[in-house]
Amino acid sequence: MTQVELPRNTPPEDNRPGIQVAAHTAPKVWKWYDYFTFNVDHKVIGIQYLVTAFVFYLIGGLMAVAIRAELATPDSDLLDPNLYNAFMTNHGTIMIFLWIVPSAIGGFGNYLVPLMIGARDMAFPKLNAIAFWLNPPAGALLLGSFFFGGSQSGWTAYPPLSLVTANTAQTMWILAIVLVGTSSILGSVNFVVTILKMKVPSMKWDQLPLFCWAMLATSVLALLSTPVLAAGLVLLLFDLNFGTSFFKPDAGGNVVIYQHLFWFYSHPAVYLMILPIFGIMSEVIPVHARKPIFGYKAIAYSSLAICVVGLFVWVHHMFTSGTPGWMRMFFTISTLIVAVPTGVKIFGWVATLWGGKIRFTSAMLFAIGLLSMFVMGGLSGVTMGTAPFDVHVHDTYYVVGHFHYVLFGGSVFGIYAGIYHWFPKVTGRMLNETWGRVHFILTFIGTNLTFLPMHELGLQGMPRRVAMYDPQFITLNQICTFGAYLLGISVIPFTINIIWSWVAGQKAGDNPWRALTLEWTTSSPPTIENWEVLPVVTHGPYDYGKNGHSTVLETGETAIPVN
Amino acid sequence: MQQIPVSLLTLVAGVAITIVSIWVGQNHNLLPVQASQQAPLVDGFFSIMVSIATALFLVVEGTILIFLVQFRRRRGDDTDGVDVEGNFPLEIFWTAIPSLIVLILGIYSVDVFQQMGGFEPGSHPHLPHTHSKAHAAQMSGSAIAATLSDASAIESEKIAPASLPEIGIGANPQQLGKPADLVVNVTGMQFAWLFNYPESGVSTGELHVPVGADVQLNLSATDVIHSFWVPQFRLKQDAIPGIPTELRFVATKPGTYPVVCAELCGGYHGSMRSQVVVQTPEEFKNWLQENLIANQQELKEAVAVNPTNLSTSEFLAPYTRNLGINPETLKKLVKSR
Questions:
Q1: Which value does ipTM take for this structure?
Q2: Distance (Å) from the alpha carbon of B54 to chain A's nearest alpha carbon
Q3: B268/A415 Cα distance (integer angstroms)
Q4: Three-state SS for B196?
Q5: Which residue, among A155, A389, A448, A468, would best test binding to B if mutated, counting the most B CBs under 10 Å from its CB?
Q6: Closest Cα of chain B to A265: distance in Å?
Q7: Tens digits of per-residue pLDDT, A406-451?
Q8: Which residue of A517, B89, B172, B188 shows the fewest CB atoms closer than 10 Å?
Q9: Are A65 and A488 in contact (CB under 8 A)?
């Protein structure tokens, strides 16, 4: 009773007429050019998100390399300081809004959620496609803004600085963020409805894969917080272009209000970037450790807890700004509380490793890399979350080191783990494992070389967002720069591996990892409507080693019982 | 369901990790010299967090490493791991322990913040005399005017309470209710710091303070947000256009320390640096005297043309001429007030 059964005699669900029509008119498989069109298939949209995001990752990465090259010496000798600020601003903006958020939520979310819950598509396929197609113009606006000097006020765009530097570029930047924000809101509505309404009836709530729980929490959080950012940015846009003075201090405006509006979204944005990744972790680790996830309910509820508490911590970005003492203390305590549900997840994954049969595949290596580095980022995060200490390290390289540990060591490692794990499903071909390991080793060493010394730089007195610095910091900065070059190089084997394997990789079969979630019950790549006949859920998503059975071999059609 | 494993081995490991963590917390040498009364408070708090973090880091990373080795798949083994889905007491344990740690850290951070003076900005005694001295500079030109004519001092006193800084780091508990020994008005502008001593009328480009004195900085900015940071003081506060803020500290160690702008303020943000010179009271007095004489020679010129009839920018011109401030910057400074 532990295998996935495919009841061949059940007719496909036909209570969704829109999709049924599509089934009759759509071709059997998509041609390559279908991926460049307005396509409503959630799998096409997922791939569109991932590939577009990866291109922007490379662009943002090149900006990072330019930044680190400038910082190899204390003087501003490579880039014009204003161009440096434009690179710094757009590096952050692109990595957040055009790489991590769209790849984790748009890419993996769209591709996997319907497959994991046994649905044929998302609830609103057209809305889904619209949400994706808001992203390319946003990217074009950001890149185009460089013709006007590029936005130079940091990804935070604090007024009055954002009101007095590179106005045209700043306006384009605001429009780009409003576009991706809108995309995020539309996508989130879709996820919430899809997860709540469209899972196969045979799937109980405690059989919902943890990735879907994470996506649910992510979407709710995005729905609650994104409109606030949009509001703040629209006010800024009016100040810039239409003569209002919401944030102009010499005309009665208040610059701190903007910071509240901005961080009310942008702190939850951190969780938008990590919660889906936590979901990926909860999928990858059990499969490659051949163990049930440790504490399913704790991990599911902790996502929701992070979603709720995460809405009430934003002022910790403003401890040295215009905030009174009581507010600094209130948000110190709420910030510290977030560490608890996050810790629950970390401990759950570590415990999942216990008693497993760990396979060191590339996906698993990146998942373990994430686990080890997120601990570091989490601990430094707790120290910064306390106002007395943050008064020293706020806006220093300590902060830069911290958030790269959680966003690069965390989110990006998670995205890599997800790509290595689901690439066989998406393309029907395996990635080369040897080059995957090379990629992992380069990335792991590069990450620690680049971001670990930054903590010490910040503690010693180096502020962030500077193009020139005190010569006493040169040694540590050169280590960081060397690490950044290594990270730049690490992308090369990965990119070649992806392209080569997509064309000529070893055939994967339907379920190469012998995983138990529903996406592995269909063909690789899945057919256009995911299944000919919808699967029936007969066991939990992580029932490895259950009832003495060993592992499901192929698509649940044949299973090898131990005895 | 297993119990939380407590064996001799884990006990030994626990003791070792505790010792190592405490040692690391006391000997990490990650922070620069302590030069203010607040610095030891911040550092003590940081050291405790480093100890806790080291312990957690060693436990979690060590556990991961041990598990990776112990539970690696052996060649030819295609079976699954053991069927364990959770352990309720263990889950309660690792929820409760971090909760307890963050609770203690939270309470402790409130205490540290209170000792640093974080709850008391703007809690100056309401003596008209100190008011006019401390806050006169919140209006353009009036800081220097206050030393010249009583009329302008009285005038500024009326307006001063409205611009009392209520944000920042204020008096520490020992100094609570007492006026600061020295008040300095600090103005941030792209890309320089301007320090004005309202009691003597001295304006400079670097900050001088006597060691052991209770110093209050009134921070303001003329163009964009800046942030006043002295790493050796462990203190930072944004200087925000339109919102007065303050930073109150006692420097404890003579020396010269960097004043760094920590909030992105434009292309040359990285070069917006100055220094704070902590001197013995005698040295400070001499320095102040020298600058007073230098300033007064020009001051007499100003008095000769009757300063009350001058516009603020005309009035300020002689004082700022030697500071490398051009008329445009000054105009902005005047306008934003």
A1: 0.89
A2: 9
A3: 36
A4: strand
A5: A389
A6: 20
A7: 999 999 999 999 999 999 999 999 999 999 999 999 999 999 999 9
A8: B89
A9: yes
